[in-house]
Design brief:
The chain has 141 residues and is an alpha+beta fold. 39% of the residues lie in helices and 21% in strands. It has 4 helices and 4 strands; from the N terminus they run H-H-E-E-E-H-E-H. It has a 4-stranded mixed beta sheet. Helix 1 runs antiparallel to helix 3. The radius of gyration is 17 Å and the shape is elongated. The protein starts with a helix and ends in a 13-residue tail after the last helix.
């Protein structure tokens, strides 16, 4: 079971490293905003919801295990992710084989997206920083 979660961590860290490397290359600043407003890829057994937080609305994507509806008394671990447009596709693909071959437990995948109607970078900086800092260009905290 631990090897499966290790695989997820490795894939996510590689993906984030590649994203950071790409961000430092000649990628336009508006690329994150394009992905934030892109239509999601259809992933088997995944559902998309809009969650309201006061005046803000966020995309929430949930992927259930294959046996979820047949085994409603079972308790599943939950893997939470941010940046839903990227992470759900990566983690869903990375966990499919280990889960289907019982190398790791079946798990519920939950991915939280950016604020709807907000540019990805602005929502990400505001939502993922712990407090307000007036020295930043974007709104924080």
């Amino acid at each position: 079971m631990n090897i499966g979660y290790g695989v997820i961590a490795l894939v996510m860290s590689c993906g984030l490293s590649l994203a950071s490397a790409s961000a430092n290359a000649s990628v336009p600043k508006s690329t994150a905003d394009v992905f934030a407003s892109a239509e999601p890829v259809v992933i088997d057994r995944a559902r998309q919801f809009i969650v309201k937080d006061g005046e803000r609305h966020y995309q929430l994507m949930i992927r259930l295990p294959a046996d979820y509806h047949r085994n409603n008394a079972h308790r599943y671990p939950v893997i939470y992710m941010t940046d839903s447009m990227y992470s759900l596709q990566v983690v869903s693909g990375a966990t499919q084989f280990p889960m289907n071959s019982n190398i790791m437990k079946q798990a519920i995948l939950v991915a939280i997206g950016y604020q709807k109607g907000s540019k990805g970078a602005a929502s990400r900086v505001r939502d993922y920083t712990p407090s307000h800092d007036a020295s930043w260009t974007l709104n924080t905290g």
